[in-house]
Every structure is written in C-alpha cells, then in structure tokens.
Amino acid sequence: MPPSWASPPWTNQSRSRELEFVLLGFSHVPSLRPMLAVLFLATFLLTLLGNTLIVMLTSLDPGLRAPMYFFLRQLALVEICFSLDVAPRLLVTLLRPGRGMFPTSCALQLLLVLSLVTSECFLLTVMAWDRFLAICRPLRYGAIMSLRLCHLLAATCWLAGLPVALVFTIWLFNFPFCGPRGIRHFLCDIAPLLSLVCADTRVFEANVFVATVLVIMVPFSLIATSYVMILAAVLRMPSASGRQKALSTCASHLIVVILFYGTTGVIHLRPKASYSPESKQVVSLSYTMVTPMLNPLIYSLRNKEVKAAFRRVCCGRQGSRFHE
Predict the structure, then answer these.
(1) Nearest alpha carbon to residue 83 among 55, 60, 50, 56
(2) Do residues 195 and 97 lie in contact, with contact meaning Cβ atoms separated by under 8 Å?
(3) pLDDT of 240-280, one tens digit each?
(4) Strand pairing of 21-23 and 182-183?
(5) How does 152-161 read in b/e, with b if 16+ C-beta sit within 10 Å?
(6) Are 165 and 115 in contact (CB under 8 A)?
(7) Which stretches does DSSP call E strand in 83-129?
(8) Rg over CA atoms, the chain
(9) Is the separation of the CB atoms in 281 and 25 below 8 Å?
C-alpha cells in the first residue's frame, strides 16, 4: 500500500485548481467579450499614453514646476499604477474566460486597488487645498507650499492607504471560502469576495463601512469646503478676468473630483442589496478604466499651460533633430 503522501500529480493539480479564484467579469454577455476586449485594450493604451505624457511634461518642462503640476504628476502616476493593476487581468478574463488565479494574486490585486483608491482620495484633497491656498492666500502661497512640503504631502498620499488596505486584505483572506470560487466581477473586490465567505462577516463589514466613509466622505467634505471658500474669494475679486483665470485653474480638478467621487460613492456607499453584480461591474468601469483615461484629456484640453508645454517639448525636440 503506497504511503498517504504519495498521491498522483494530477490529484495535486486538481486540489490547486479548487483553491483558485475565477473572475467571471461580463460572463452574462459572452458574445460581446471580443469587442469589449478590443475596447478595453484601447482604453488601457490611451490611459498609459496620456498619463505618461503628463508625467513627462511636468518633469521636463520648466514652465510646469508649480506645486499644482507636481501633484498632477502624482495623480498621473497613481492612474498608471491603477490601470496596470486592473486592465491586464480584465483583458485575460475576457480573452481566456475560466482561467483561475491564485489567492495570493487576488489578494495582491485587492491590496493595490484599496491602497491606490485611498491614495487618489487623499491626493485630490491635497490638490484642492493647493488651489485654496493659491487663490485665497496668494501672498503666503509661496512660503507655505515649499518643495519639502510638496514631497511630504505626496509621500503621505502614497503611503496612507497601505496600512488600511493591508489590514482589510489580510482580514478578508483569513475567512474560510466555501463552494464554487467564481467571483462575479472583473477584479478582486471586497463585496464579491464576501459573497464566497461561509462565516459571520458582520464585524468585518461594519469596519469596512466605517473605513469607507472616512476615506471617501472626509476627503470629499474637505474638498467641498475648499471650493466653497474658493468660490467666495472669487466672487469678491474686482476684475472679471481675474475671476475667470481663478476658476479656470480649478475647473479641471473639479471635473475629475466629480467623476471619481461620483462613481466610487455609488459603488462603496450604497447598500449591497440595491444593485446587481452586473450593474456594479459597469459602474466600476467608470473609476477603474474610464476616469484614468479621461484625466489627462481633461487637464490637457482645459489647461493652456499644459498645451503650451506640450508644444515647447515637441518643438524643442524637432529643433534639436533639425540642428543635428
């Protein structure tokens, strides 16, 4: 009789397959998967191209050295990381449906999603505070927004979400998962993973809700307060051109805030029973794929300095090639 540990290799493979998660994103529309894959691939490439261009322009052009463009570069880097975390796995799900992923891969994706969403919330808040200082405290703006403070705020935004994301990811993956491991989503998120847990998760869900309210609503309240004070300061300006210039520097950021918080709020603050997994996938696309693609377009099309920097960089490179 062979020892108990000498099991056939295919037995180990089947057991490992049982432990894998399978993303079932857009499984309700199998005929549309090829078209969706092409659409999301184009969105992914445009996101990388647009945000990389923002990073390059704000790094190379001397005219974009203000704190506003420093934080814009950080936002573009967050969007690049976010897209690299979500889009490749989404494309694999569409092109090779049924392919499993190990729990460690799923946990890593969840960790990065939670951390990057938190970082973006804080970064948008810092950008609103920067606009508040520039418009409402112009004489003290240069002294307050020093290069050291900008780097400190950026590092805080990048790292602030990591401890919270780490705690909830480890907590969630310590629960027992029972039955079929099909995740009705195109990414590993808390809500679809909770539906696979066969244990009491009420304490976990209550803590997730509290953390979500703090991460989303507190920054949003600070942003709203900043813009109320900005609007009050703008209305007191004597010249129409001054009011228009002040508002134009805030318009792009305000549009991005509305897009980001509008979609994340719908997903994370509504009761779970009020939407289907399919509708949640569609709304999730807004802040995971669409918003990262639109951010560079919003900032470049509405910002004269960014467009001027693009022309300077392009003309400078063409001129150097011509002289060579």
Answers:
(1) 50
(2) no
(3) 777 777 777 788 888 888 888 877 776 666 545 456 767 77
(4) parallel
(5) ebbeebbebb
(6) yes
(7) 100-101
(8) 23
(9) yes
Structure tokens at 292: 């990262």
pTM here is: 0.86
Give me the DSSP letters along 177-234. Answer: B-S--EESSSS--HHHHHTTB-S--HHHHHHHHHHHIIIIIHHHHHHHHHHHHHHHHH
Q: What are phi and psi of 238, to 5 degrees?
A: -75, -35
Burial of 256 (C-beta count, 10 Å sphere; 0-12/13-18/19+): buried
pLDDT over 50 (residue 9):
no
Q: In this predicted model, what pLDDT tens digit does every residue of 177-210 receive, in sequence order? A: 887 788 888 999 888 898 899 889 999 989 998 9
CB within 8 Å of 235: residues ≥ 6 apart: 243
Residue 323: both structure tokens together: 């002289």
For the record, the structure tokens of 18 come out as: 């049982």
Alpha carbon 60 to its chain centroid, in Å, reads 25
- How far apart CA 256 and CA 303 sit, in angstroms, is 13
